[in-house]
Amino acid sequence: MVRNTWAANSSLFLRGSLAIGFIGFALSGVSRAEEEKELRVRSIAPDDSTRTSTAVIVPSGMNLAHTAQFLPLDERGSIIGPERAAEQAEVVLDRLESALKAAGTGLDRVVKVNVYAARTDVLPAFRTAFSARMTGQARPALTVVVGILAHPEALVAIDAVAVTSEPVRPLASAPAGQRSGAALAILPAEARVYVSGQAEPSTDLAEATRGTLKSLDKTLAYLGLDKSHVVQLKAFLEPMSAAAVVEREMTTFFGAGAVPPLVYVEWRSSPTQPIEIELIASAGPRTEQTAVESLTPTGMKASPVFSKVVRVNRGHLIYLSGLYGSPQTKGTEQVEAIFKTLEKVLAETGSDFRHLAKATYYVTDDEASRALNDLRPKYYDAEIPPAASKAIVPGVGADGKTVTLDMIGVTIPHESANPPK
Question: 17: pLDDT confidence band, cut at 50, 70 and 90?
């Protein structure tokens, strides 16, 4: 059995109070104005053994570099280290580090990492490589999902979010060996929007992708934005072997050299819905409106369990590691435990269920999926639920567990919004 330390820590989270690590300085006696000036990331329950944290709070004044999903490929698109998970882990970390350096940041400023593994048994090799490389103070939040990757021989892939002093930069070229999509784009310290996954029906993947991109374009127009505001797209698709089809449609839609960073996740869906696409975009200057807004574009119907769009106007972002319930329990019990853990983390970070920006639910079976449908109304405010995507995937990175929750929250913006010391 493969033990996932991150998952184990999530399961045990409710047994104790949270520790809070402050990267670079201590907040004791620091005013809110001074804190804004210092702009320091705060790690919640940092774990030096895994080099990760349960959550990371990023001050609203920080720019955020969002990367593409990096695969272990050479410049020709061939796999590096076939069937050697440790070598592939080093390659994707090299790719990540190189992209971050080009944007004036680095591994020591990473706040969130998403890991995609072809099989659960490759995760120990990645954990070893990751821990060895994260030698700085950064203890990012981390989420794991298991499934076929965009190259059939790839065992591991990653994307990440890191703070950077650069407010904007031209889209960089595609990652080594990958056909389309910039290696990195920057989400400036302004208002930000998270658009839930959209999907237009078709049995043809290319047609479904085109239709979905047109739908997203309409959503951007409703928000007063355009393609140039998009910082990252995540596509849930089946089959993953057809990722090149999606890449071609992305290039046609955005234009050559203008495709934002792309992330791909294998999911299980119906033949008439082969793809769903979500996006993150910059939304211009902040306003004094509600910190978190739930928006429903024209022609769409509001849902009590997820917002079609969430706009974050104020407040610091909170990146959570993937949350898990207890292993070998029913889906309902796992989901209930996850939401109880989430409730505790939000309280400790100065947030609540009315200040959630984006949720991604990864489930491995219909039972866990139904449990999410049944339990979300119990916790979410129907007027302002998070933007969300839910994907049925082959695995969630931990034995005996069928669901994990990846969440981005927002601190409640008032004078005492700092987390407990």
Answer: very low
